[in-house]
C-alpha cells in the first residue's frame, strides 16, 4: 500500500515538474522569438533613420515630402519580401506593381497602405510574414515598382495556384506567369 | 508494543501529511493554471471587443456615408442653382471616398471580392468631383451627364436600402461581425461567417450590370481602355521579337534566353529573360518587345551596381546617346533621381521647342560603369503622335499676370501636359520660387486657366515633382 503510494507520489511530482518545465520552455521560446523580432525592428528603424538623415542632411531646403516616399517604400518592400522571397527579381517587381496598380484602380483603396492592409488581400499580412527579415532585393524591387516599372502590364491580382484556397480568384483572366505566381486582371 | 504502535501511528500520520501536501501542491498548480487561463481569456476577449468595435464603427460609418450619397444625389437632381450643385457634388465626393475607405476595412474573409461596390463608390465620387470642377468653370452638366447621375443614384438607393437592412440586423444583435473570428473551429463559425460575408457579397452582386462610365476623371473607365498611339501598325513574330531584344541589349550571344510569354492588355508584349553570363546567374535582364510595331517597351537589368564612379551629368550624356541610338530624337531630360548607385532620368519629347510631357521615357544609368540598366517607354508609346500644336491665343505677359504676384518666375516655356484624366492641355510652364520652395505653374495657353501646380523638390539625390 505504502509502496504503491510512493510510486504514485513520484509520478505526480514528475508530472508537476514536467508541466512547469514545459511552461517555462514555452515562455523561453516566446521570449527568444520576441527578442528576435525586436532586433529586426530595430535594425529596420536604424536603416530608415539613416536613409532619412542622408536625405535631410544634404537637401537644400528640408523637405518633409521626401520622407513620405520612404515610408511607402519600406512598407511595399516588406510585402514584396513576405509574398515573393525566393522568386525571380522580375516577379518581385511584379508584386509591387500589382499593389501600385490597385491604388490607381477604382475598385480598390487609393493608398498603398490601404491596399496592403485590406482584410484578406495579402496572406503575408495576415500570417505575419510581412515582418520577416527584409532582403535587399525586395527593397530594390520596391523602388523599381514605385518608379513605374510594371512587368504585369496593369494586373490587379496574382495568386500561387499551389497554395490558394480561394475559388473566386480562379475566375479572373490570367495575363502572365512569373515564377510560382499567376498574374491576373 | 506501545513503541511499535507509536511508530506505526507516526508512519500513518506522515503518510497522510505527505498525501495532503501533495494534494495542496496539485491544487495550487491547478489554481495558478486556472488564473492564467482566465487572464488569457480576458485578454483575448478584450482584443475581440476592440476589433468588433472597430468593425462596427467602419460598417455603420459606411452605411451613413452611403445614405448621405443617396440623399445628396437626389438633391442635385432637384437643385437648379449652379453653385449649390457644385457644393453638393463636392459633398458627394467626400462621402463617397469616406465610404470606400470604410468598406475596405470590413472583415469580409476576402474583402477584395467587394471590388464592384468599391468601384461604384469611387466612380460616384470621382464623377461628382469632375462635375463640380466643370460647374466652377461655368459649364452646366450635359444631358448625358444627367442620365449618368440618375443611374448612379438608383444604385445608391438600392445600396443604401440593402446596407440599412444589414445594419438593423447587426444592431439588433441578430448578426455580428465579431462572430467571424471568435467561435473557434466549430461548425457554428462556418455558418456565421458565411452569413455576414455572403450578405455583403449579395449586395455586391447588385452591381453586376453596372454601366461603363466615361467622364473627365482619373478613375473613369476610359483610362483602362486607352490604346497605344505611338506604335507602328505592323505586327511581329516571336523570333523577330527575340532578335529585336538582343539587338537592343547590344549583345551578340547570351548564355541563356528564356521566353516568358506573350502578355499585356493595352500593349501586348513578348517577354524574355536574358542571362548574359552563365557564371553570374543572379544577374538577369528582363525585356518586353511589343507585338504591334516590334518596339522595346521596357527593360530591367537587375545587376548589383557598385560604388559610383561617374556623376549625373555624365550619366545624362550616356542616356541621351543611348536614346539617340534607339531612334528617340528631340528628347530633353527633366527630373532625375539617384538611388542604389544608379541614376533614373526622365526624358520627354520636344516638338518645335514645345515640351510634350506625356511622351516620357525613363532611362536608368548605373553610376559605376555608365551602362543602361533600366528603360521604360510605356508612357511614350501610349501617347506619342505627331501633334498639331496650335498658336497660343494669350501671350506670355498675359499669362504671367494670371499667376500669384508672389511667385518669383525664373523660366518660361511652352508645354503640353497630361491631366489626371489623361486629357492633354497646351500650357505655359512657369518655373519659379515661392517661399524658398520651387514650383512649376501651368497656365493654359488658350484659355488662361491654371491647369496644374507641381512642387519641385531639389536635393543632391535628384529633382522630383510632387
Write the layout of secondary structure elements.
The complex is a heterodimer of chains A (185) and B (466).
Chain A (H helix, E strand, L loop, with lengths): L1 H57 L5 H21 L4 H15 L8 H5 L6 H4 L9 H11 L10 E3 L14 E5 L2 E4 L1
Antiparallel strand pairs in A: 1-3, 2-3
Helix pairs in contact in A: 1-2, 2-3, 2-6, 3-6
Chain B lengths: L1 H77 L3 H22 L11 H22 L6 H29 L7 H4 L4 H19 L32 H12 L6 E8 L5 E7 L9 E6 L5 E6 L10 H14 L5 E9 L2 E10 L2 E13 L5 E5 L1 H6 L12 H6 L6 E11 L5 E11 L2 E8 L5 E10 L2 E4 L1
Parallel strand pairs in B: 7-9
Antiparallel strand pairs in B: 1-2, 2-3, 3-4, 4-8, 5-6, 5-13, 6-7, 7-8, 9-10, 10-11, 11-12, 12-13
Would you write up a description of this structure?
The complex is a heterodimer of chains A (185) and B (466). Chain A has six helices and three strands, in the order H-H-H-H-H-H-E-E-E. Chain A has helices at residues 2-58, 64-84, 89-103, 112-116, 123-126, 136-146; strands spanning 157-159, 174-178, 181-184. With 185 residues, chain A is mainly alpha-helical. Chain A has one domain (2-53, 67-184): Arc Repressor Mutant, subunit A (Orthogonal Bundle), CATH 1.10.10.2520. Chain A is elongated and about 80 Å long. Chain A has a three-stranded antiparallel beta sheet with strand order 1-3-2, with helices on one face. In chain A, a hairpin with a 2-residue loop joins strand 2 (174-178) and strand 3 (181-184). By secondary structure, chain B is an alpha+beta fold. Chain B folds into three domains: 39-225, no CATH class; 238-383, no CATH class; 396-465, Roll (Nuclear Transport Factor 2, Chain: A), CATH 3.10.450. Helices cover 45% and strands 23% of the residues of chain B. Chain B contains ten helices and 13 strands. Chain B has an eight-stranded mixed beta barrel with strand order 5-6-7-9-10-11-12-13. In chain B, helix 1 packs antiparallel against helix 2. Chain B is extended, with a radius of gyration of 33 Å. Chain B starts with a helix and ends with a strand. Classes of the chains: A mainly alpha (185), B alpha+beta (466). At the A-B interface, helix 1, helix 3, helix 6 and strand 2 of A face helix 1, helix 2, helix 3, strand 1 and strand 2 of B.
